[in-house]
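Sequence, please.
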């Protein structure tokens, strides 16, 4: 049993990823300029998709009515990397963004071997305690068979054992962290908490990394702040499209209500759900796994 799925779902997911994962790894070729938006689930994917999309798409869409983010969920603006989508990913007119929750070493071989001039990767991660709490509520809210529900304590145990979506969270984070140290021009490593703290600095840095720097004129016109405001939790979660719509996974057909991607959008919500002992346990695991890597998280 893995945290987040029933046994049947786990089997189906493994089957799909074994089939699709191998094909993705072997066959997918990015186009020059493609940017991969990568994350461990519930770490801020929706936010990063909105920001990267808004950065690339900003010209001609800085005002209201013609901005796709106002009438589409961010997950419909940035395509996931599914085998079934290979032909659609590069269709003309699409922004060159491709998203995946795959661990670094499971990315397509081509993506791993090509240089930063061909494709780039932006990764977002988040304090594991908040990621856990966010996952727990996401899963429990969507669970159809209520008799398969697990308690927060059971979920926490599985999470601490590394039995979660896409493997242990620490391996996922470390994979991208190390890659960002080895190839800083190709892999950008972001923390949810840092973007919250200083959105302006990080959104500018993100745009620069992606090759879509803001010009002094754009800055003067307040475009950076407009993008930050448009992609904020408060704005996106309040949009009609994100309150009523559904996002359909093209592979397994699972539907997620758009509003389920938006819960609280806060740093440190774990304090409302985890005991000090639980928090200390997970912090200790993360510290131990990250030791020597140079990666730290503020544990407040
Ligand atoms: P919470 O459950 O803590 O509220 P993902 O997008 O990877 O699925 O992660 C979902 C988490 O990001 C949820 O966290 C959600 O509320 C939060 N989130 C969604 N959109 C956001 C935004 N625009 N800004 C900040 N956080 C956002």
């Amino acid at each position: 049993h893995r945290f987040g799925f029933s046994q049947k779902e786990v089997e189906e997911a493994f089957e799909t990823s074994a089939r699709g994962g191998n094909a993705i790894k072997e066959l997918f070729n990015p186009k020059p300029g493609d940017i991969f938006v990568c994350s461990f689930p519930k770490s801020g994917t929706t936010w990063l998709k909105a920001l990267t999309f808004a950065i690339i798409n900003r010209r001609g869409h800085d005002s209201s009515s013609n901005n796709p983010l106002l009438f589409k969920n961010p997950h419909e603006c940035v395509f996931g990397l599914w085998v079934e989508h290979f032909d659609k990913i590069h269709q003309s007119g699409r922004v060159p963004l491709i998203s995946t929750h795959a661990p670094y070493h499971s990315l397509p071989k081509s993506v791993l071997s090509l240089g930063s001039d061909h494709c780039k990767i932006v990764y977002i991660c988040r304090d594991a305690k908040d990621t856990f709490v966010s996952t727990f509520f996401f899963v429990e809210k969507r669970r159809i068979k209520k008799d398969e529900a697990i308690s927060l304590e059971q979920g926490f145990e599985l999470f601490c054992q590394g039995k979660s979506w896409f493997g242990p969270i620490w391996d996922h984070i470390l994979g991208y962290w190390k890659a960002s140290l080895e190839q800083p021009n190709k892999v950008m490593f972001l923390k949810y908490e840092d973007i919250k703290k200083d959105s302006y600095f990080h959104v500018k840095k993100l745009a620069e990394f992606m090759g879509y720097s803001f010009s002094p004129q754009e800055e003067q016109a307040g475009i950076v702040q407009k993008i930050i405001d448009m992609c904020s939790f408060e704005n996106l979660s309040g949009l009609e499209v994100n309150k009523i719509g559904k996002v359909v996974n093209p592979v397994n057909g699972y539907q997620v209500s758009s509003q389920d991607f938006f819960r609280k959008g806060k740093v440190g919500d774990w304090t409302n759900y985890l005991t000090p002992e639980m928090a200390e346990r997970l912090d200790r695991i993360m510290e131990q796994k990250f030791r020597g890597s140079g990666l730290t998280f503020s544990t407040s």
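The pocket of adenosine-3'-5'-diphosphate is lined by residues 39, 41-47, 50, 130, 134, 137, 231-233, 236, 261-265, 269 (CB under 6 Å).
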